[in-house]
């Protein structure tokens, strides 16, 4: 599945880069945003790009190269931004972009079980390749205590049927290990009221979101990554963050308020959202919000 960059021009315009700048792309993905920077500035801007997914790094590397840009690819969590940038000789940056979450390639048939639409191993980790230390969603659903599971599904999925779902998971795993995305989706569907099962969204949507956020500690990584970028940022530099759900957006809004106390100027009093045209062309963009802060 091809990944279409979201709020592309709004975010790159918002960074206000100029020749000679060093910019961090915390979430390279398919390299959509980085390629736009490359098209605008060629090799006069250095892009330091992160991704946990080796396939994304390769894809982004090729697209930035095709667009005539200069990329320093880093296969690591963007929460390590301070150390990683310093190790690569970049102790000061002019801007940073975080396009949070997962790409269309990952939600599509990536073989990692991010979607309830495909029958895949229940991994849900952004880390690719996986090592013996990588936490997987299968470990969580088969190992976590029922009340913790329910709290996690409620907290990160804002799922009102979290208790019923956690109970059904625990009952099911006593009979057989839960190790595929479809198996989990079926357990969830059977545990919720029929009105919810046949409702507007798939009943597994929120539980899958919760598991993905938990497995990858997405909120913790976002806080650390943005704080790290702030530390490296030169005066006058900007950070742009694109979020896709209310938990992320709330987190960024509150974090920016904190950074305002540290001399930050919030550029987007209200977050920028995609135009109706963008949403028509790319459904994935419908919940996107862009917030920008200047140091
Ligand atoms: C929404 S996609 C980015 C798409 C990209 N901006 C584009 O337009 O092609 C998010 C990417 O960030 C990566 N990612 C998410 N959280 C990460 C983290 N904490 N550290 C490093 N990479 C991360 C995912 O693997 C995914 O490839």
Write a structural description.
The protein has 295 residues and is α/β, with parallel strands linked by helices. It folds into 2 domains: 8-105 and 218-294, Vaccinia Virus protein VP39 (Rossmann fold); 128-215, Putative methyltransferase TM0872, insert domain (DNA polymerase, domain 1), CATH 1.10.150. 47% of the residues lie in helices and 14% in strands. It has 14 helices and 7 strands. The protein has helices at 8-15, 32-41, 54-66, 81-87, 104-107, 137-143, 146-157, 162-175, 181-191, 194-197, 205-215, 218-232, 246-261, 276-281; strands at 22-25, 46-50, 70-74, 93-99, 233-243, 265-266, 289-294. Strands 3-2-1-4-5-7-6 form a 7-stranded mixed β-sheet, with helices on both faces. Helix 2 (32-41) links the parallel strand 1 (22-25) and strand 2. Helix 2 runs parallel beside helix 3 (54-66) and helix 12 packs parallel to helix 13. The longest helix is centred in the C-terminal third of the chain and has 16 residues, at 246-261. It is globular, with a radius of gyration of 20 Å. It starts with 7 loop residues before the first helix and ends with a strand. The mean pLDDT is 97. The structure holds S-adenosylmethionine (SAM). The site of S-adenosylmethionine (SAM) has 23 residues, from helix 2.
